[in-house]
Amino acid sequence: MSASLQRGINVLKEMIDAPVASFFSSCVHCGLCAEACLFYTETGDPKYTPIHKLEPLRRVYSQEYTLLGRVGKMLGLSKALTDDELETWSELVYDSCTMCGRCSLVCPVGNDIVYMVRKLREGMAVSGHAPKDLRATTRRTIEIGSPMGVKWPAVQHVIQRQETETGLKIPVDQQGAEIMVLLSSMEVINYPEYLGALAKIFHKTGTRWTLSSKAIEATNAGIQIGASDLAREIVARIVTAAEGLGVKKVLSPECGHAYMALRWEGPNLMGRPFKFEVVHVLELLDEWRRAGKLKVKDKFKTPVTLHDPCQIVRRGGVLEAPELLLEQVVSEYRPMTDPNKWNWCCGGGGGTSAIHEPDAEQLRFKAFQVKKRQIEETGVDTVVTFCANCRIVIEEAFDHYGMNTKLLGLTELLAQHLED
Amino acid sequence: MNAMQFLAWVRGPGLDISVGILLLGVIWRLLEIYTLGRKPDLAPARRRAGASGWHTLYRRSLPAPGGLSRSPISYVGGYTFHIGLAIVVFLFAPHILLASSLVGLSWPGLPSPVIDGVTVITLAAMLVMLFDRINKPVKRYLSTFEDYFTWALTFLPVLTGYLAVKHLLLPYATMLAVHILCVELLLIALPFTKLFHAITVFGSRWYNGQINGRRGVPV
Amino acid sequence: MADPDTLEKRLAQQGISRRAFLKFCTAMATLMALPPGTAPAIAAALAKAKRPSVIWLSFQECTGCTESLTRSYSPTVESLIFDMISLDYHHTLQAASGFGAEKSREDAMKESYGKYLLLVDGSIPTKDGGIYSTIAGTTNLDMLKQAAKGAAAIISVGTCAAFGGIPKANPNPTGAVAVSDIVKDKPIVNISGCPPIPAVITGVLAHYLTFGALPELDSLNRPKAFYGETIHDRCYRRPFYDQGKFAKTFDDEGARNGWCLFELGCKGPVTHNACATTKWNGGAGFPIEAGHGCLGCSEPDFWDAGGFYKALSMPATPLTLVTGAAVTGAAVGVGISIANRMKKGAAKSAHQTATFTDLEK
Amino acid sequence: MSLENISIKVETAGVFSVGNVNALLSEIAAGLAKVIATGETTVIDLQSLPFAPGEYEQLRQTLGQGEVTARIEAIGTSEVIETRCPGVWWLTHCNIEGDIVADVIEITAIPEILKSQPEDVCAGLDRLNAMLSQPAPRND
Fold first, then answer.
1. Window A:248-277, CB contacts with B under 8 Å
2. A305-306: strand order across its sheet
3. Does C334 touch chain A (CB under 8 A)?
4. Does A168 score more than 80 pLDDT?
5. In chain A, whose CA is at the least distance from the CA of B198?
6. CB D78 within 8 A of CB D94
7. What percent of chain D has pLDDT over 90?
């Protein structure tokens, strides 16, 4: 079996619902969503207008689910969707959309545009129009268990190193632990100190926690590419492991879309609520902070600013915790313009960072200019964030632009300054 | 057909037909759109969605932070012509009379000179919006025939209404008839074009507010 | 050799002074709604005016127009004008009857062929060969056609002759039409109104008499001098309209304060006539001054224009399609809704679970 | 039962303040300025103006009565009044029955109608000469 246009359209027909119909019926082509999209603001190319990226979905909606559209299609007044068009749109739906959801926030008629992009990607994926890099990533996640091809032995190696560095035991497959911790491949490869930081914090709070050898990977390429069937398979691994261990909470790591995949999409993919709670690491830390369990010995002296990862803040709803935690540990925090839910994307969300085509990469760097401006306006040279993907994208961009700016993970920063 | 026959037709059968089509279209389209249904969200809500939908209904009436300076014409023009239209449509004495004869409700209106002024401002704002649509790359790129067509359908009733009241161009009776005819065309087109946003805007904002409200994000 | 038949000579013969003649010309200017400064021009023109023959035909009418004219409150001027015309046939006013009357009409038509002025009041029934109104065995239709042939011009007096009027109102059982629907090859002046203002009738006659030509006309062939503006434009209650002050009933505070009658159905805004300035009954007033809205009687089809007590902005007829439209809309909506759900259901059934190989073509 | 037994309450309309009088006074002022500047006469036909009930009387009161009042008896009575504003004349022409046939305000030094007309002067002279040419009555 293989991808086909017909399968794509069929999936779109499944995906279209009352909100989609309402949104398309409300659009007045005011173009304000363009101003919210970093791919438009940084390039000035009108084809990056968010609502325009949804044209294929709109066509299917109109032709399949409206009486006038059906009649028009029958009379040959509107053309059916073609593979060529979808191929053209692939760039708009994947390369130039990070599903950051900023457009959904500004639309004057209230259209949730990113809600529809997510649906359109379903059709794009099974009609074979997802970028090949994303397809490869998805394949690795399904076959190997991780988008970056990280296997359990590699994780074990990280565990051992962090145990040595912290002098603390990192539990694995502990039946009845309170919290099961997930990691993202990026953390395993690029930021292993995150695991050590967690071990320290759990040790100080006396929390019984565990990793699972069956489900270490939190990221979900199925969500990014827009294939729910695959996303479900990936989520199911975590659900099986967590429910098998009988944990109360599953800790989503510093990774944007992982939180989206598990916290908000997971139960819908599985078709049932979970028997455990999905918590983002910052939510947990903030809970402890409020309970007085998180005391810092000193503060980070360098002024910092905060980059809010879209999927955790704007789309995930972890709105206040990051700033409250940051203010606890730094002596000077200078918010960016458009902070919190209004923040601009790093340019690499929604699977975009996995696309390594030269055009897509150049576009990503161009889109990063908005973040660059935001950082420069604060006048600081240290940026804190809490998404491994954002970190990679931002660091790449720092290199690209030759910026001498440091980037820190919030959890690690906290761990470093905790009371002994 | 002379002016009075024309006027009698638009006030009689014309109004009947257009209001009929409007009603037919609105009910049809509302059912068409909102019976598509949606799956229940099985993810446990961070916070009960509660009145999030209603909040968003209100919140989206205000410009997004920074939006006003980034798209001043869209916002200022948009506000001006929407508010202007509302004032002219709902606070001009003869219109109130029409409403009271159709639905039995009446409310105080504004003096004619005020309505005149608002009408001129509304027309100007609509012209600016048209100019902006042609001038601004994004808007021009997005625009289809429908965008210009619906603009004309909205502009003409205001223009002809003004000309009728001011006795310009055509004799009053003829212009009044043309005005009513233009309004009738607007009513007929409303359910089947983007003008339907006048109704679905509430549903769309509500959905957006509700979807994101469960996640704890006030949109 | 002075023509003894000019007005100036006749007045002089009657011992009327030049000063009296000037006064008369001032009155004429007022009558014709000409600027008062034109009196000298009128005087000059009148000095040469001839005495035309006039034939007045009454068809499907109520004699209200004749009543209006003969009860005019400035009889001296009118009588002077009637002195100036030779009214050769008017079956209500003339003394002769029967064959004698008809003969005088035929004689006048023969003698002044091509020169006489034809005044018509009443509409002309055309259904069934026009048999619904006959005079001396001749249908109105035939009589009009005959009389029109030799006429220099035709003046349609009253809305019936001008636009068909009440006889033409729905369902128009006699197939009534206006003079202008039958006569196409003669200049026609419509002096509409039900009845027309007497001063307007005499004003048009005076104009013809004075200048030997018809006055300037609007698109409905009405003299612009009298029908150039709407009642609304010249109404003394207009400021209340502009302020948005409307009487809601005929006995409310607004009505007592003389507020605008628009909401009570006044057709002033769409009615062209001189009532608001010329007024009726010797200047006593006009309908709006008496507290009643204008009916719009000088406009075509005023009888069927959606009700005298319905404001212009209100529906002329009740909305009848609303219920049917709502039911149809609901039916269409439910239909498409069911079809959509079936289609979506089918799409779900057709769903094949995707594997990663399904992402490749 | 006679009509007197029916109690009828007569209500007179108050003066409407719709602004016609002021507009007209401005027009009159402009006419006066024109007379001063160019000597050109302005004539305003009061019957072609839309007066609200009471406004006509209000105008009459405002303009008032000045130094000159004249009556002309020619196919009915005409009353010529100079108002309190010299140069502003109010002419009311009535027919033999006493109905008003023309009602105008003339802004000029002296209304044309007051002047003796050359034709009438000639006619008067003719009549006088005719009288003179008759043999004088003999005193018996």
1. 263-268, 270-273, 277
2. A305-306, A382-385, A406-409
3. no
4. yes
5. A26
6. yes
7. 41
Given a contact cutoff of 8 angstroms between Cβ atoms, the answer to whether B151 and B143 are in contact is: no
d(C-alpha A155, C-alpha A328), whole Å: 31
Q: For residue C127, which amino acid is it?
A: K
Please name the fold of domain C51-225: Rossmann fold (3.40.50)
Task: Give A281-317 pLDDT, tens digit per residue.
Answer: 999 999 999 998 888 889 999 999 999 999 999 999 9
Q: Which residue of chain B is at minimal alpha-carbon distance from A107?
A: B60
Q: Chains near D, with 3+ CB pairs < 8 A?
A: C
To probe the interface with D, which of C7, C8, C19, C288 has the most D CB atoms within 10 Å?
C19
Distance in angstroms (rounded) separating the CA atoms of residues B173 and B10 = 11
- The Cα angle at residue A152 between residues A148 and A153, in degrees rounded to 5: 105
Alpha-carbon distance of D43 to A216, in angstroms, equals 103
Please report residues of B whose CB lies closer than 8 A to that of C319: 15-16, 19-20, 102
State whether A67 and C353 contact (CB < 8 Å).
no
Q: Which two tokens stand for residue A368?
A: 């990063």
Q: Over the stretch C120-134, which tens digit does the pLDDT of each residue have?
A: 999 999 999 999 999
Tokens representing C269?
């805004």
Helix, strand, or coil (residue C134)? strand
Q: Which chains touch B (3 or more CB pairs under 8 A)?
A: A, C
Q: How far apart are CA A199 and CA A173, in angstroms?
A: 15
pLDDT at C1: 35
The architecture that CATH gives domain A135-289 is 3-Layer(aba) Sandwich (3.40)
Say if domain C231-304 classifies as CATH 1.10.10.10: no
Tokens of A253: 């790591």
Taking CB atoms and an 8 Å limit, are B215 and A31 in contact across chains?
no
Name C127's Cβ contacts closer than 8 Å, sequence gap at least 6.
Answer: C173, C174, C175
D102 touches chain C (CB under 8 A): yes
Give A5-129's CATH code, choosing from 1.10.3470, 1.10.1060, 3.10.450, 1.10.12: 1.10.1060
Tell me whether residues C354 and A126 touch, CB distance under 8 A.
yes
**A331 in B contact zone (CB under 8 Å):** no
Domain D14-128 coded CATH 3.40.50.1000: no
Average pLDDT of span B12-32: 95
Cβ of residue B168 closer than 8 Å to a chain C Cβ:
no
Q: Where are the domains of chain C?
A: 1-49, 51-225, 231-304
Q: Do C314 and B109 touch (CB under 8 A)?
A: no
Check: CB of residue C195 under 8 Å from CB of residue C302. no
Q: Does B111 contact C296 at a Cβ distance shorter than 8 Å?
A: no
Top mean pLDDT of A286-290, C70-74, C80-84 is at: A286-290
- Please tell me if residue B89 touches chain C, with a CB cutoff of 8 Å: no
Question: Are chains A and B in touch, 3+ Cβ pairs below 8 Å?
Answer: yes
What 3 state SS string does chain C have? CCCCCCHHHHHHHCCCCHHHHHHHHHHHHHHCCCCHHHHHHHHHHHCCCCCCEEEEEECECCCHHHHHHHCCCCHHHHHHHHHHCEEEEECCCCCCCHHHHHHHHHHHHHHCCCCEEEEEECEEECHHHHCCCEECCEEHHHHHHHHHHCEEEEEEEHHHHHHCCHHHCCCCCCCEECHHHHCCCCCEEEECCCCCCHHHHHHHHHHHHHHCCCCCECCCCCEHHHHCCEHHHHCCCHHHHHHCCECCCCCCHHHHCCCECHHHCCCHHHCECCHHHHCECCCCECHHHHCCCCCCCCCCCHHHCCCCCCCCCCCCCCCCCHHHHHHHHHHHHHHHHHHHHHHHHHHHHCCCCCCHHHHCC
